[in-house]
Amino acid sequence: MSVIIEKSQRLRADIIKYLYYKKSLSLTDLSKLTKKSLPLVTSIVNNLINEGYIIEQGLAPSTGGRRASMYLLNPNHNKYIVAVAMDQLITRLTIYDLSRKVVLPMQYLELEMSQSLDDVDLLIKFINASIKKSKLNINDIIGIGIGMPGFVNSDLGINSSYLFVKDGSTLREYLSKGTALPVSLDNDSSLIALAELNFGKAIGLKDVMVVNIGWGTGLGMIVNGQLYRGSSGYAGEFSHIPLSDSNNLCSCGKRGCLEVDTSLVVMAEKAEKAIIDGVESSMKELFKDKSKQTRDHFLDAVIAQDPLAISILSKAAFQLGKGLSTLIHILNPECIVLSGRGAKAGKMLMPAIQQAINEFCIPRIAEQTTIKLSTLTDEAELLAAASLMVENSLFE
User: Fold this and answer.
1) Residue 65 above 90 pLDDT?
2) What's the domain range around 245?
3) CATH for 28
């Protein structure tokens, strides 16, 4: 492939990418974002219109001069992305079109991630069955984006914690072979940070910490407007800072990790123990419903302002705030976004976190950081998993 053709393909992919994130842009906007000349951008956009990728939306609002034409991705163009969001217990899958519209309702797989060599084959079977259920032509699917817990190196396509393969290939290669589609994968907390940067509360910000409150406790760091991964791709293991007041063993094999106090799994376990010990709570009846995980019942109880649930949440949030205080001193972020499944708890998370920050942070530093609640909550990882394929596809 010649250098000129390669640059042209990269530019068309970048134009599609910016329209995917921004929804609607003018030719001038695209020229500035891609740092390419207006005539070149115009030529590529016209080609993409002819191919059906882009349509003209109309004119921009008047600013006093000639109104610019606006462009967006064609919602009727048959191109789709499979998005997969995994946690330690449940795997969720949906399919989006390029306008981020859901074309396959959420699919669920109960997969308790372990060291088993069978896990990755179960995942492949689930993905293939879901694609078949969608009745989409596989040739119209751009690829599969997957977010997952563990030590994930997205560049190498491996997960050093889970989903081990049998034939010596990388996890990405094995998944791609098993589904006959391109695959991109990344750590779940890194993806949630990207979702907030592109679609949520971190839009337009430069230095942000995004806390993934889920079955574990994760962190994605945005530094100078970019996801910070560290030298080997494993930055953000916030949950394993040894700040716990207990000596409980963490899933990583160490003791005293922040996660043993702050994950939703631990909160739900504490609620179950309290109920066994005789504490009255609405969760006593909720936990009898086995159609949902106890962790989901716990969140429901928090939202319903059950006293026991709120008490447990507040203690965990205080510990979380203690950990965030440490990071505020080191990174001095302009914003902290509370995201992931646990963000459904909403404003009930805030008082205890703010109390810890007030107690442990130097005021001059703490007052420079705002705390925001995500509105994406448990869709964040799915949106970002889809955007993985947008980032990595040339849309040939």
Assistant:
1) no
2) 204-375
3) 1.10.10.10
Q: Which two tokens stand for residue 265?
A: 């799994």
Query: pLDDT at position 254, please?
Result: 78
* Angle, CA of 159, 260 and 356, to the nearest 5°: 115
Q: How many CB atoms lie within 10 A of CB 176?
A: 19
Sign for the CA dihedral angle at 376, 76, 125, 384 comes to negative
Give domain status of residue 326, yes or no: yes
Quick one: 8 exposed, middle or buried, by C-beta within 10 A (0-12, 13-18, 19+)?
A: middle
Helix, strand, or coil here: 389? helix
* Residue 198 included in any domain: no
Q: Under 8 Å CB-to-CB from 208, ≥6 apart: which residues? A: 193, 196, 197, 202, 221, 222, 333, 334, 335, 336, 337
Residue whose structure tokens are 């007041």 = 245
What is the predicted pLDDT for the residue at 307? 94
227 lies in the same domain as 328: yes
> For 269-298, how does the pLDDT look when each residue is reduced to its tens digit (9 = 90+)?
999 999 999 999 999 999 898 888 888 899
239 lies in the same domain as 342: yes
d(CA 382, CA 389): 12
Give every strand in the sheet of 141-148, ordered side by side.
102-110, 90-97, 80-86, 141-148, 183-187
Q: Which amino acid is at 217?
A: T
Q: Which residue among 39, 73, 107 closes a domain?
A: 73
Three-class secondary structure of residue 186 per DSSP: strand
Q: What are the φ and ψ backbone dihedral angles of 57, each rounded to 5 degrees? A: -90, -30
Extended strands (E) in the chain: 25-26, 54-59, 69-73, 80-86, 90-97, 102-110, 141-148, 152-153, 158-159, 183-187, 208-213, 217-223, 226-228, 335-339, 370-373
In a domain, 196, yes or no: no
Handedness of CA 282, 287, 289, 293 (dihedral sign): positive
Q: Is the pLDDT of residue 62 over 70?
A: no
Q: Are 317 and 357 in contact (CB under 8 A)?
A: no
CATH number of the domain residue 85 falls in: 3.30.420.40
313, part of any domain: yes
Residues in the chain: 396
Rounded to whole angstroms, how far apart are CA atoms 108 and 91?
6
The CA distance from 61 to 34, in Å, is 23
Cα–Cα distance measured from residue 209 to residue 193, given in angstroms and rounded to the nearest whole number: 8
Tell me if the pTM is above 0.85. yes
